[in-house]
Amino acid sequence: MTIHPDQERSPESIVLDCAQRARAAQLPLAALSDIQKAEALHAAAASLRRSCGPILQANSCDIDAATSAGLSAAMIDRLRLDSDRLEGIAKAVDAVADLPDPVGQIIDQSTPPNGLQLSRVRVPIGVLGIIYESRPNVTADAAALCVRAGNAVLLRGGSEAVHSNTAIHAAFVEGLVASGVPADAVQLIPTQDRAAVGAMLAAAGLIDMIIPRGGKGLVERVQADARVPVLAHLDGICHTYLHSAADTAMAGDIAFNAKMRRTGICGAMETLLIDAQFSASAAVLGRLLDAGCEVRGDARAQALDSRIVPAGDADWGTEYLEPIVSVRIVDGLGEALAHIAEHSSHHTDVIVTSDDAAAEQFLNTVDSAIVMVNASSQFADGGEFGLGAEIGIATGRLHARGPVALEGLTTYKWCVRGSGQVRP
Amino acid sequence: MTIHPDQERSPESIVLDCAQRARAAQLPLAALSDIQKAEALHAAAASLRRSCGPILQANSCDIDAATSAGLSAAMIDRLRLDSDRLEGIAKAVDAVADLPDPVGQIIDQSTPPNGLQLSRVRVPIGVLGIIYESRPNVTADAAALCVRAGNAVLLRGGSEAVHSNTAIHAAFVEGLVASGVPADAVQLIPTQDRAAVGAMLAAAGLIDMIIPRGGKGLVERVQADARVPVLAHLDGICHTYLHSAADTAMAGDIAFNAKMRRTGICGAMETLLIDAQFSASAAVLGRLLDAGCEVRGDARAQALDSRIVPAGDADWGTEYLEPIVSVRIVDGLGEALAHIAEHSSHHTDVIVTSDDAAAEQFLNTVDSAIVMVNASSQFADGGEFGLGAEIGIATGRLHARGPVALEGLTTYKWCVRGSGQVRP
């Protein structure tokens, strides 16, 4: 009987070993030029295309297992790859390769009276850990973003996608290695033991930042247990406030789009606040109801349409991710701001108004990662923000907030150029 | 018998209550203008000056207790206030008031093809926790920096300074409140129970960032136990590398200043790496030895001067904070970089060289918060970096690195100005 060596080692020691090798690989990766990193990612994309056969074959193993295990049709669809989807994955890697390299960018420069020439220069963060579920495209997407910014990465995918992830990872790394990137810069944790996740979360000093990509259960667990900094958002309880001075047509379009364009994304509106002085409330709500949206309102909202059901206290703190919206009628901007301060998950909140002073007060007061005037909250997205990609949206208060792409995967160092200064 | 209400409550519930009141107070604080916050801090400084009598009286209680308890003369000196030192504290608060307000600064702006006008705007972090030892000036210094950047703050000083801290805090807040800042924006944790520190470290979501100010034991405990992000550095194992192409006079001056100007600060050099091709090694080391510095060297360094004692393995990882330096002779830049990669605490590392290519390679490769060319590591200081002040130096990899002043006490939000955009 052959025992695979990893079966003799604890998940903790496997993760420790991976992280140490990633740290060692990150130094040569960080030393690569912009062009070298871009070429390596194009090579990884080409290798994914060349490996279409084995990747789809591995994926069919995962699909068979998922079917036998009775996973939902939606989960199986998220898991499934075909040649079109794989081409999409390769294209996304090419797109990341073509983004500008944030490493080496000078954030600011100064020369204090001591004559030292100071500059703050973007550098990679170091070793990142990505913990994700079902969608195998994350293996390539996240790895590409990490490598573009000079970071080594430890990938930990869901067990239901283990064959797909292994095949995608193998192809991706084959491309990187051919371009001079150390293989250890992008590693898939080689055990499905759940204790490996705990070991990653505990690896302060070895892993510099954890990014969970998946459902609320995963994010909640990661945020609760991690000793390593986490970049994530737990809830997207996004508000849209229709101010008394809102253009009625614009208000209706924005409210409808914010809720109904896609109800399952984190930037979807969950609560609609309507000013008591706003003149077209019934029309805005009627349009949502006509489209099949369930509307849960306070007493004053219910009076506007007989189809509106009562909202309970829990509704103001619920991320539905479905065609359901909670609606409250508020008396003025102050009451809207107070509601948002109490219930927002600090993701994206919107005011619709033609009153510039109200807009500025809303922008200044609302304490969320993204605050919008006269636009749909569904724009909360790295691509729409011109970042070219997105590793996720963060609602934490440090490092990076809102959509996070390459810049959020960097930190900075101070470079100091002197001419022999000693300190008096 | 009167029981003080806090004696009936657990340290955890006291900290929880303080943090919730701080969170509530932070919103009105954040809404104050630049001028209002500056005026409030000048009022706090004036109040400190007016309260000179009670503050010095409170301080004498602490000094008496410290003397009875047999504290060292150095600790008692750190604890002691007089009218000059108190004037220094008030002046420092005035100086922070006069620094530019980082809140509201626009980091960058863009307009992607969807026409949304995006800007990233600096905002306060929220509620900060400062945990510090003995020096009562931190009560005013740290509170001033936090308030200047719109943050509420929970202060937890050492028990040996409890009377001084209480008096300084009372005077400081009296000035703030007279200027419209809520009293709860600056709180001193009202219990000396050590469990209160644990409660602060565990208060993820209530406290947004912890800053420890004190000795290595304190920082180590905070970094090990905190669930809240920590801004700090543990060690300052700073290297100076004298390259083969270093100007000999400059190299001698920088090495001497980096070690001997003040040996007890985190930016002091602890290890001197000398290139085997550098021509003035014996002179550089002789100057340190003549000044009473203990030099611990490898075999090649010992051959240069009979006064040099052997360095053990532990010396390369020791922050002496005393007139002691470890010295290693290295063969070229690569060996110096490898030594620094292995032993640096990522605080400040220096190369002395006239070779621009070597300087740039050092700047690019060394992975520390501050990397210097041709200057003394003792310049690692917020004041010397033109930041006007310093809450501390950070060696963590996220949020802020190196000297941290007001900007490091802010985060940002995305402000989005639309004209009715809905997402296709």
Give short descriptive properties of this protein:
Aldehyde Dehydrogenase, Chain A, domain 1; 14 helices; Aldehyde Dehydrogenase, Chain A, domain 2; 424 residues; proline biosynthesis (chains A, B); homodimer; 2 domains; seven-stranded parallel beta sheet; four-stranded parallel beta sheet; 20% strand; alpha/beta
Low-confidence stretches of chain A: none
The biggest chain-chain interface is: A-B, 63 and 64 residues
CATH 2nd-level architecture of the largest domain in chain A:
3-Layer(aba) Sandwich
Overall radius of gyration of chain A: 24 Å
- What is the general shape of chain A? globular
Helical run tally of chain A: 14
What's the CATH first level of the largest domain in chain A?
Answer: Alpha Beta
Tally of discrete structural domains of chain A = 2
Order of helices and strands of chain A: HHHHHEEEHEHEHEHEHEHEHEEHEHEEEE
Q: Give the % helix of chain A.
A: 40-55%
- What is the strand tally of chain A? 16
Distance between the termini of chain A: 71 Å
Which structural class do you get from the secondary structure elements of chain A?
alpha/beta
The CATH homologous superfamily of the largest domain in chain A: Aldehyde Dehydrogenase, Chain A, domain 1
What does this structure look like?
Helix content of chain A is 40%, strand content 20%. Chain A has two domains: 8-231 and 405-414, Aldehyde Dehydrogenase, Chain A, domain 1; 238-384, Aldehyde Dehydrogenase, Chain A, domain 2 (3-Layer(aba) Sandwich), CATH 3.40.309. Chain A has 424 residues and is α/β, with parallel strands linked by helices. The first copy, chain A, has helices spanning 11-30, 34-50, 52-68, 73-79, 83-97, 137-148, 162-178, 195-202, 216-225, 248-260, 281-290, 299-302, 333-343, 356-365, and strands at residues 106-110, 117-124, 127-132, 152-156, 186-188, 209-213, 238-242, 269-275, 294-297, 309-310, 324-330, 348-352, 370-375, 392-394, 402-404, 410-421. The first copy, chain A, contains 14 helices and 16 strands. A seven-stranded parallel β-sheet of chain A has the order 10-9-11-8-7-12-13. In chain A, strands 5-4-3-6 form a four-stranded parallel β-sheet, sandwiched between helices. The mean pLDDT of chain A is 94. The radius of gyration of chain A is 24 Å and the shape is globular. In chain A, α2 packs antiparallel against α5 (83-97). The longest helix of chain A has 20 residues, at 11-30. The interface between A and B is large, with 63 and 64 residues. β16 (410-421) of chain A pairs parallel with β13 (370-375) of chain B. Chains A, B: Catalyzes the NADPH-dependent reduction of L-glutamate 5-phosphate into L-glutamate 5-semialdehyde and phosphate. The product spontaneously undergoes cyclization to form 1-pyrroline-5-carboxylate. Chains A, B: Its EC number is 1.2.1.41. Chains A, B: This is Gamma-glutamyl phosphate reductase.
